[in-house]
Write a structure and sequence with these properties.
Blueprint: E1 3-10, E2 13-20, H1 22-39, H2 52-82, E3 87-93, E4 110-118, E5 133-137, H3 141-154, E6 157-159, E7 169-178, E8 190-196, E9 216-220, H4 221-224, H5 227-236, E10 250-262, H6 268-274, H7 283-316, H8 324-334, H9 341-367, H10 374-388, H11 399-408, H12 412-434, E11 438-442, H13 444-457
Parallel strand pairs: 5-11
Antiparallel strand pairs: 1-2, 2-4, 3-4, 6-10, 7-8, 7-10, 9-10
Helix pairs in contact: 1-2, 3-7, 8-9, 10-11, 10-12
């Protein structure tokens, strides 16, 4: 009769040894030989009439090896099930195992050993003690007015005046790297672009007034643009924004076309174009809708920032022990190509963090009965489609939308990725109920600067 023994070899790391006697595997071995003899095609014998003795002589050792290993695997699985072992990945066969010991001419007791990594018990960090801030972005009248202006220009009518008359002119231009006198530098940068005159800083804009097609100005990036626009232009020109000398470069900027957008009028037709599903009659209602949209955008941004802080809080303050030696061995053997011990050592810190987060998520999901339903996934698929069709009026219950959703539900990759994303969202929604953050109202500029400093700090 098979016996299974277990011994601890290190933290959360056990060795399980399975011993199988002849009585455990010989009956299935004999049965397998008979099955083999019925199917074997051997010259000189009719199919199904090959003597079992001949099959044993020809294939006995490989068939016996298969049956012994199958029996060992079954006993190992039964033991782990009965003992309710919660393990990482799969048991790893130990190097001492040698299937070559199996000999059909002298069946015996065989022992095979496996290493298992046990999942740890742990307590999630007490989020009520976390010092977190929930930011609220102050939506100003200027932000609303800027968005109204952007929408008027976006929905306006393009005309082709002869010359530049003001900030709202669109100029198609060519940047040619030059010296201070406008002489092109050999091998220098040359790049076409299209800009509103108001993208240049206020003092520089007057240089464009009255200019026509083929006219040019020579500029230095440092003085022609304010910081925000300058960063964008530097990137567009293929320069490194960290290079302090980039802004000192000169460019001859030649007009290839002058345009002007006649802004859309603030009337009901325009309001309907921007918000087809809303009944907006007045400019005040229109601005209120825009303010709500800007609020929603910044609420999503600040919530994302809070989730980022929560992620680090819960990860950094939840203590979880790991069976490191087992997991490093598993990293070495789990991929398509075997890895060296050095490679596994190098990968382990990132791997352990990901594993830690997975365990935390699973614990939150289990203890709080968090579920992702088929309806959740369908709603997400529909929302994704509607976001693609942005701005178009449609009945959400149209048959082709339902067909699209049903088709996406057959896409295993989409379903798995969506399920994972929704589950993560629900886990973060739960974490938000556990915290007592400080509420703080700040400007959009302050929030963006804070985010940039955080990103810079982590690079």
């Amino acid at each position: 009769m098979a016996t299974v023994t277990r011994e601890n070899i290190s933290l959360l790391n056990d060795k399980i040894t399975v011993k199988v006697a002849k009585d455990d595997y010989l009956p299935s071995f004999e049965k397998a030989l008979k099955e083999y003899s019925k199917k074997a095609n051997i010259p000189g014998f009719r199919k199904g009439m090959v003597p079992v003795g001949m099959i044993k002589k020809m294939y006995g050792n490989s068939v016996l090896t298969d049956e012994v290993l199958r029996t060992v695997e079954k006993e190992l699985t039964n033991y782990m099930t009965s003992e309710k072992l919660d393990i990482f990945a799969q048991p790893l066969p130990l190097p001492e195992n040698d299937a070559r010991q199996i000999d059909v001419s002298s069946p015996a007791e065989y022992a095979f050993a496996f290493e298992v990594g046990l999942k740890p018990e742990f307590t999630i960090a007490d989020l009520a003690k976390a010092k977190l801030t929930r930011y609220k972005i102050e939506v100003t009248d200027q932000m609303v007015n800027d968005e109204v202006e952007r929408l008027q220009i976006r929905n306006g009518k393009m005309t082709d005046p002869e010359s530049v008359t003001g900030d709202d002119n669109v100029i198609n231009i060519t940047f040619t790297e030059s010296d201070a006198d406008g002489n092109a530098i050999e091998g220098g940068i040359s790049k076409d672009n299209s800009l509103l005159v108001k993208y240049f800083n206020e003092n520089f804009r007057k240089n464009w007034i009255g200019k026509k097609k083929d006219d040019f100005v020579v500029l230095q990036l440092a003085t022609a643009f304010d910081e925000k626009e300058r960063e964008w232009i530097i990137s567009d020109l293929g320069l490194d924004k960290e290079d302090k000398t980039a802004t000192e470069k000169y460019f001859k900027v030649t007009i290839t076309k002058v345009g002007l957008v006649e802004r859309a009028e603030l009337n009901e037709e325009f309001f309907k174009t921007v918000y087809p599903k809303k009944e907006i009659k007045t400019e005040e209602e229109f601005k209120a809708a825009i303010k709500e949209e800007i609020n929603n955008y910044w609420d999503a941004q600040t919530r994302s920032q809070l989730h980022h802080s929560l992620y680090h809080e819960i990860l950094d303050h939840t203590n979880i022990d790991f069976p490191e030696s087992f997991l490093k061995r598993w990293i070495q053997s789990s991929g398509e190509q075997p890895k060296s011990a050095e490679e596994a050592e190098h990968e382990f810190p990132v791997f352990a963090n990901q594993l830690k987060w997975t365990l935390i998520v699973n614990k939150v999901v289990t203890e709080n009965n968090i579920e992702v339903t088929a309806d959740d996934i369908k709603a997400s698929a529909k929302q994704q489609l509607l976001s693609y069709m942005q701005g178009q009026v449609m009945d959400e219950e149209q048959p082709w939308i339902t067909d699209y959703v049903n088709r996406m539900m057959q896409d295993r990759k989409f379903v798995e990725e969506t399920m994972h994303r929704i589950q993560t969202d629900k886990v973060f929604a739960w974490t938000e109920t556990q915290i007592k953050p400080t509420e703080k109202t700040i400007t959009a500029e302050e929030f963006n600067k804070m985010q940039q400093e955080h990103q810079h700090h982590h690079h």
